[in-house]
Amino acid sequence: MTAEPGVTSANASMRARTVWTIVLGFAADPLMRWSWPDPGQYLGSMTQFIRACGGRAFEHGTAYVTGESRAAALWLPPGVHQDEDTLDAIMAVSLRPEISEHMAHVRQGMAEHHPSEPHWYLPLIAVDPNWVGQGLGTLLMKYALQRCDEQGVAAYLESSNPENIPFYQRHGFKIIGEIQHGCSPPLTPMMRKAN
C-alpha cells in the first residue's frame, strides 16, 4: 500500500505522543466526559482506556499518525480485538457508581452490534483540537479505507460524538443502530462495506 503524504505508522518512540493526541482529541467527547467528568480522572483513565481499546494497533503497525502526530487513528485488523479484561478493570476502578450499570449496558450493546464477519475496527480516531479543520482526519481515514478496499474487507466503528457522524458518512459509513442506556450519551455503530 502506498503511503499518503505525511501518513505513517506510529512506531514505539511515537506511542506516547500518539496516545496524548487522542486524549486531547476526546477531551470534549460526550461519552468520554460522561464517563470521567473530572479533568484529572479523565486524563488518568483515558490513557489507560486508549491502550486497552486500541493499543494492539501499535503491535500490528496500524496505528496511523499524520501532521507530526497532530492526528491519530488506531485501527484493529480483522481478528484483532480490544483488551476486554483490561477495559473491565479500568471501568471497575474508575467509573462513578451511579453510571457503572449504564456503562455495562452500553458495552453490552457494543458487543451486540459488533459485526461477526471479518472487518477492520476503528476504536479511536482523533485530531488535536489545535489542528481541527486542516484535513488531517480525512487524510487518515482515506489512507486506512484504501487498505480496506484493497483487501475487500468492511470497516466498523462506533461514533461517541453525534457531531462526527457526518464525517464518517462522507467516507461511506452507514448508521446501523444506536446504543444508549439510562443517562448515557448515545453511541452510534457504523459500518462501511469495501468498495
Automatic annotation (TrEMBL):
It comes from the Bacteria. Pfam families: Acetyltransf_1. Gene3D superfamilies: 3.40.630.30. CDD domains: NAT_SF. InterPro entries: Acyl_CoA_acyltransferase, GNAT_dom, Trichothecene_AcTrans. Residues 109-195 form the N-acetyltransferase domain. Keywords: Plasmid. This is GNAT family N-acetyltransferase.
